[in-house]
């Protein structure tokens, strides 16, 4: 994918006509999308004049960010669980009270 990205970026420096530039930007957007570089893909699709793909990249970026937050929360919960387990072990097996929400 890195070679394809370089190819399309190099092609853009050749100053092709407007129609060809839009096609190149569209192809670049596809490559960046496959690399999960959604913000960059969004910009490429913007240059390509493809509002549908721009919206799709924004949606993918939002979902990606949500997933990152969910993963971080899962890591924190697992860390708390391990800490509670260690505390229970240190207390000699007595159950650790579960905090109420």
Low-confidence stretches: none
* Structural domains: how many: 1
Structural class: mainly alpha
CATH topology: Serine Threonine Protein Phosphatase 5, Tetratricopeptide repeat
The biggest beta sheet reads: none
Please indicate the percent range of residues in DSSP E strands (runs of 2 or more).
under 5%
| Overall CATH class | Mainly Alpha
- Helix and strand succession? HHHH
User: What is the 3D form?
Assistant: rod-shaped
CATH architecture name: Alpha Horseshoe
| Number of DSSP E strands | 0
User: In percent, how helical is the residue content?
Assistant: over 70%
In whole angstroms, how far apart are the ends? 47 Å
In round numbers, the mean pLDDT is: 93
Structural Rg: 23 Å
Q: Please, how many helices? A: 4
Coiled coil: 54-90
InterPro entries: TPR-like_helical_dom_sf
Protein name: Tetratricopeptide repeat protein
Organism: Thermoanaerobaculum aquaticum
Short description:
This protein has helices at 2-13, 18-34, 38-48, 51-90. With 101 residues, the chain is mainly α.
Give the arrangement of secondary structure elements:
Blueprint: H1 2-13, H2 18-34, H3 38-48, H4 51-90
Helix pairs in contact: 1-2, 2-3, 3-4
């Amino acid at each position: 994918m890195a070679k394809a990205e370089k190819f399309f970026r190099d092609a853009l420096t050749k100053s092709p006509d407007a129609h060809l530039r839009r096609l190149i930007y569209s192809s670049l957007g596809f490559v960046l999308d496959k690399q999960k570089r959604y913000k960059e893909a969004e910009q490429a699709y913007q240059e390509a004049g493809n509002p549908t793909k721009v919206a799709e990249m924004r949606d993918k970026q939002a979902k990606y960010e949500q997933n990152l937050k969910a993963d971080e929360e899962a890591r924190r919960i697992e860390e708390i669980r391990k800490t509670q387990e260690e505390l229970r072990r240190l207390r000699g097996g007595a159950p650790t009270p579960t905090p109420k929400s």
